[in-house]
Specification:
9% strand, F-box only protein 21 isoform X7, 3-stranded antiparallel β-sheet, 50% helix, alpha+beta, flat, Hemimethylated_DNA-bd_dom, single chain, F-box-like_dom_sf
């Protein structure tokens, strides 16, 4: 009976949405339906916000059903911007109609600013003060960010210039927030030792578009701790670590009990879960991001050590970080509490090397050199984060590459020193040939001689952060310049089409 009423009423709704007058056909039939049926119809997804506005003006009953804090406007908001719902608590009173209006206004403002960036900053990189318009926006910042994400998720290979500047703005907004959190974190007392929290801030700063949170990463580590406890239970069912509650910071003092924890950890991490040091792709930046270390189960010494340290401390083993040259380590005290200790009273743990336990002499063998006792000392959170950032800045390799041209000169326009350093004179045509500005797939920008470039007969999209600054779309065979680049090189687009046509005509003849 109710289903039949819904079907019948749904036929009336389109007419009702177009004619708001109370005399509209079928209105009396509609308003006499049970409240839950009417609410179901209004939340069915077939009506727009404008439709709901018109429907609510027809009579008191529908106006009450469409009240600003009710289910109908909440559903309109949820359908339009589903990712924002996580910011609202089910118990909060929310004026959904007002939220809808504010979010819509923020979206219009965001698009207006993104559209202006290409004209303002095409000839130069966006300066820090270029974001002043954004900082002065009214309304919740999460609404503005959500619109930028919507732009980034626009269909396929189009609107590349919009996506480029939306990404720039989103990076700025999120990195500013993360930077503020990191500054507050670094102002903590020196004995505040949340190494994982600091590492997550660096991860978030370097990956501002990824959904990374300390809570999620801690939850993944907690699940590893549960597996270690399961293994530990088989070693010693009365082990004190098994009684620890989440969030406790108790430490076990007996060396034998600590050793049992480390044995269980090594089994779970390296044998069961297959974590390992990434020797094959050591210089990949992903090895330093904690969320990627957990996903890919591999990393470099410092990231593997922070994971190992965090798990050990949760289970009561007081390991400490050692800023050892060329290979980050952990140390495990073997001496009596309160005694005067030197570097030989510790065992050093190589988390990159499957938790191998090393003596001082073995640590020196590991890096192939003798080091002073000071380098075996423990370091605080700030020093650990400095090393992580230093590692990130030094990472990177270059190979043969794919690229896209975004500018050119009829001859090399660089100075004599650059020409000499780059050994341009060794080229058959030297500097008397066209040189091209190119965006390379590894994220770099280069100035390349024409004889060093060749057309790729199987073009691929270039994963470079500045592509959208110069191009609006990738067609599958070539990039289309945006309005600003086309003004700078007005005759080049025609030559691009001609080149593409010639290449593919030749390719077709070869196939035939």
């Amino acid at each position: 009976m109710a289903a039949a009423a819904v079907d019948s009423a749904m036929e009336v709704v389109p007419a009702l949405a177009e004619e708001a007058a109370p005399e509209a056909a079928g209105l009396s039939c509609l308003v006499n339906l049970p409240g839950e049926v009417l609410e179901y119809i209004l939340c069915s997804g077939s009506l727009t916000a404008a439709d709901i506005g018109r429907v609510s003006s027809t009579c008191r009953r529908l106006r009450e059903l469409c009240q600003s804090s009710g289910k109908v406007w909440k559903e309109q908001f949820r359908v339009r911007w589903p990712s924002l719902m996580k910011h609202y608590s089910p118990t909060d009173y929310v004026n959904w109609l007002e939220e809808y209006k504010v979010r819509q206004k923020a979206g219009l403002e965001a698009r207006k600013i993104v559209a202006s960036f290409s004209k303002r900053f095409f000839s130069e990189h966006v300066p820090c003060n270029g974001f002043s318009d954004i900082e002065n926006l009214e309304g919740p910042e999460i609404f503005f960010e959500d619109e930028l994400v919507c732009i980034l998720n626009m269909e396929g290979r189009k609107a590349l210039t919009w996506k480029y500047y939306a990404k720039k703005i989103l990076y700025y907004l999120r990195q500013q927030k993360i930077l503020n959190n990191l500054k507050a974190f670094l102002q903590q007392p020196d004995d505040y030792e949340s190494y994982l929290e600091g590492a997550v801030y660096i991860d978030q700063y370097c990956n501002p578009l990824s959904d990374i949170s300390l809570k999620d990463i801690q939850a993944q580590i907690d699940s590893i701790v549960e597996l270690v406890c399961k293994t530990l239970r088989g070693i010693n069912s009365r082990h004190p670590s098994l009684a620890f509650k989440a969030g406790e910071s108790s430490m076990i003092m007996e060396i034998e009990l600590q050793s049992q924890v480390l044995d269980a950890m090594n089994y779970v991490l390296y044998d069961q879960l297959k974590f390992k040091g990434n020797r094959m792709d050591y210089y990949n930046a992903l090895n330093l991001y904690m969320h990627q270390v957990l996903i890919r189960r591999t990393g470099i010494p410092i990231s593997m050590s922070l994971l190992y340290l965090t798990i050990a401390r949760q289970l009561g083993v007081p390991l400490e970080p050692v800023n050892f040259p060329s290979h980050f380590l952990l140390r495990w005290c073997q001496g009596a509490e309160g005694a005067s200790l030197d570097i030989f009273d510790y065992i050093y743990i190589d988390a990159f090397g499957k938790g191998k336990q090393l003596t001082v002499k073995e640590c020196e063998y590991l890096i192939g050199q003798h080091v002073t006792a000071a380098l075996y000392g423990v370091v605080n959170v700030k020093k650990v984060l400095q090393r992580m950032v230093g590692n990130l800045l030094s990472l990177g390799k270059r190979y043969g590459y794919n690229c896209v041209i975004y500018g050119w000169d009829p001859t090399c326009m660089m100075g004599h020193e650059w020409i000499r350093n780059m050994n341009v004179h060794s080229l058959p045509h030297g500097h008397h040939q066209p040189f091209y500005n190119v965006l390379v797939e590894d994220g770099s920008c280069r100035y390349a001689a024409q004889e060093n470039l060749e057309y790729n007969v199987e073009p691929q999209e270039i994963s470079h952060p500045d592509v959208g600054r110069y191009f609006s779309e990738f067609t599958g065979t070539h990039y289309i310049p945006n309005a600003e680049l086309e003004i700078r090189y007005p005759e080049d687009l025609e030559s691009v089409y001609e080149t593409v046509q010639n290449i593919y005509s030749a390719k077709k003849e070869d196939v035939e």
